[in-house]
Specification:
174 residues, mainly alpha, Arc Repressor Mutant, subunit A, 3 domains
Length: 174
């Protein structure tokens, strides 16, 4: 199972490798992958202690993706070396190379929206009427709705008055 390792833990293991302990024995003792330990040592050799810190996530441009993919695909530089040199994850670089193999370099320039597609929920946003005709039509709709509401209220009042007359009560003036 994969777990995150602290900066101090990485530095301690790298210093043990530098002092002569073998990668294999340290990986067995600390239950680590030898490749991961090797990568930490490479990062330490290349960048010093700062190479062991977590790298910030970057949003790579299509041009950068193409240039880095060409290093692996055309110049045959090993993928781990390119990933280490440019500070990108091996999995990201592998996915870019997969895209190049299936769609060509143009595939890196396709922009696909990330995340879940939006749902049209609720009522659409009201827009303000722009022309005089639209303003008049909006007012007409509003007045018709108001008229219909008043007719319903009048009918309900008349119905209540009729019921009260049948029981023998005088209608209230509320």
């Amino acid at each position: 199972m994969y777990r995150k390792h602290s900066f101090e833990e990485k530095l301690n293991l790298v210093s043990q490798v530098k002092s002569g302990y073998s990668l294999k024995s340290l990986s067995i003792i600390h239950e680590l992958d030898v490749k991961m330990l090797k990568e930490w040592v490479r990062k330490y050799d290349l960048y010093g202690e700062t190479g062991l810190n977590k790298q910030p996530n970057i949003r790579a441009s299509p041009e950068f993706k193409e240039a880095v993919s060409k290093l692996v695909m055309e110049k045959f530089i090993p993928l781990p070396h390119v990933a280490l040199k440019y500070g990108i994850s091996k999995s990201a670089l592998k996915s870019w190379i997969k895209i190049v193999k299936t769609e060509g370099y143009d595939g890196l320039y396709k922009h696909e929206k990330r995340g879940r597609p939006l749902k049209a929920m609720g009522r659409p946003k009201k827009r303000e009427p722009e022309t005089e005709l639209e303003k008049l039509q909006a007012e007409n709709i509003r007045l018709r709705a108001e008229n219909a509401l008043l007719k319903k209220v009048k009918a309900l009042v008349e119905e209540r008055e009729a019921r009260e007359r049948m029981i023998g009560q005088k209608p209230s003036r509320n």
